[in-house]
Design a protein that fits this description.
eight-stranded parallel β-barrel; hydrolase; Family 1 glycosylhydrolase; alpha/beta; 43% helix; beta-glucosidase activity; 412 residues; 15 strands; glycosidase; TIM Barrel; globular; three-stranded mixed β-sheet; 15 helices; binds 5-hydroxymethyl-3,4-dihydroxypiperidine
Length: 412
């Protein structure tokens, strides 16, 4: 039997723009309308209205934690105008969790920003820190009883997008989804492989400053543990790629793991592993087990990421805030998660302080420009919004209820 520490959180994660629908004031909404090749978020899966059902399904499965995000562009649709009604909406979500005995993990910013913020230059604006902090102060007014707060989701992915957008603007290239690998010939794949290869470490230092300012506000005004969540690439060096690995990983990750030193926890988000050679990231070679976002089936990436985060963050406690697989095959999802959890148990046995595991995602949702990659434990009919739990939800709920599992019991 593989077991986990007492009080270990077991849950699932989502993000506002990917599930709520009609976030018409967000920068992503605007981008979807104009970027070629992007599908629209539209009504998404209408979780804005159906959150109570979503939280109930999560709780009934046996899971004990729900990570969701506040949508800044709903709360502050116009600069300086904070909507009390929208704040009350998110407070109702927190209350729905607490009523079901579910521990809410609240993300203050998950990729999207208000359009007015983007128009000022977004995170590049000299006012970015003050503007985000003003929002964080308002958010803190609804966080009573919340134990876990994430200031920002994957600032390192946001930095990689910002770096790529600067290069695209300079070269007049095409945008593709940040999380879905390009299809087609090797040259196109190679270009996409390089698309989000680099993140300027200066952007990482800017995000760290803003994160620390937000962290101070959350600490002053709430009793929550506070941290941020980082996209972990579980990168390894191909022969000859050792130096390039260090260079790429610093801007894409390590500057952020360093920035989490002194936090109450750091969120680790891992899905796959990738090699770096002397030229940069090596695109995932074609394989029948590749996921619907084109990445390799690498459940071992979770343990690799945890070990790296633990070392570079200088032993900051870890919460797995995302891990999962884009697949239409739910048996494959269970197989992947079983292996990922076995690896995670190994890191705990080695003394790493891991506090919980939140699967990505509770619901099939809008994968930033694409609907085909399904990461959910629950599928959703996008016409009726009817929810259908997949076997993986009951499976993970049972793992949660027993705080462990027999590997052979579940692996198909
Ligand atoms: O859907 C995303 C999420 O918003 C951030 N982390 C990775 C997920 C899967 O690509």
């Amino acid at each position: 039997m593989t077991t986990f520490p007492d009080g270990f959180l077991w849950g699932a994660a989502t993000a506002g723009h990917q599930i709520e629908g009609n976030n018409v004031n967000s920068d992503w909404w605007a981008r979807e309308q104009t970027m070629p090749g992007m599908e629209l978020s539209g009504d998404a899966v209408d979780s804005y209205h159906r959150y109570a059902e979503d939280i109930r399904l999560l709780a009934e499965s046996g899971l004990t934690s729900y990570r969701f995000s506040l949508e800044w562009s709903r709360i502050e649709p116009v600069r300086g105008h904070f909507s009390k009604a929208e704040l009350a909406h998110y407070r109702r979500m927190i209350d729905a969790c607490l009523e079901h005995g579910v521990t809410p993990v609240v993300t203050l910013q998950h990729f999207t920003t208000p359009q007015w913020f983007a128009a000022l230059g977004g995170w590049d604006s000299p006012d970015a820190e003050a503007l985000f902090c003003a929002f964080v102060e308002q958010a803190c007014t609804i966080l009573d009883g919340v134990e876990w707060v994430v200031t920002m989701n994957e600032p390192n992915m946001q930095a990689a997008i910002m770096t790529a957008m600067r290069h695209l603007a300079a070269s007049g290239g095409d945008w593709t989804s940040p999380t879905v690998e390009a299809e087609g010939d090797d040259e196109k794949k190679q270009q996409h492989g390089q698309f989000l290869t680099y993140a300027d470490p200066e952007i990482g230092r800017m995000f760290t400053r803003i994160h620390h300012a937000a962290r101070a506000i959350v600490r002053e005004r709430t009793n929550a543990k506070v941290g941020w969540t980082i996209a972990a690439g579980a990168l390894t060096a191909a022969p000859g790629g050792e130096e390039k690995l260090l260079q790429i990983r610093y801007g894409k990750e390590d500057v952020y793991w360093e920035g989490s030193r002194g936090d109450d926890f750091v969120g680790v988000q891992a899905y796959s592993s990738q090699q770096v050679d002397a030229n940069g990231l090596v695109p995932h070679p074609p394989h029948p087990d590749n996921t619907l976002v084109g990445t390799a089936f690498r459940p071992d990436s979770l343990a690799m990421a945890v070990r790296h985060a633990w070392e570079v963050s200088e032993h900051t406690p870890i919460l797995i805030t995302e891990n999962g697989i884009a697949t239409a095959d739910d048996v494959q999802r269970i197989r992947y998660t079983t292996a990922a959890l076995e690896g995670l148990a190994g890191t705990i046995a080695d003394g790493i302080d891991v506090r919980g595991y939140l699967h990505w995602s509770l619901l099939d949702n809008f994968e930033w420009g694409h609907w085909e990659p399904t990461f959910g434990l629950i599928s959703v009919d996008r016409d009726t919004f009817a929810r259908t739990p997949k076997p993986s939800l009951a499976w993970l709920g049972k793992v949660a209820a027993r705080n462990g599992f027999e590997a052979t019991e579940f692996a198909a």
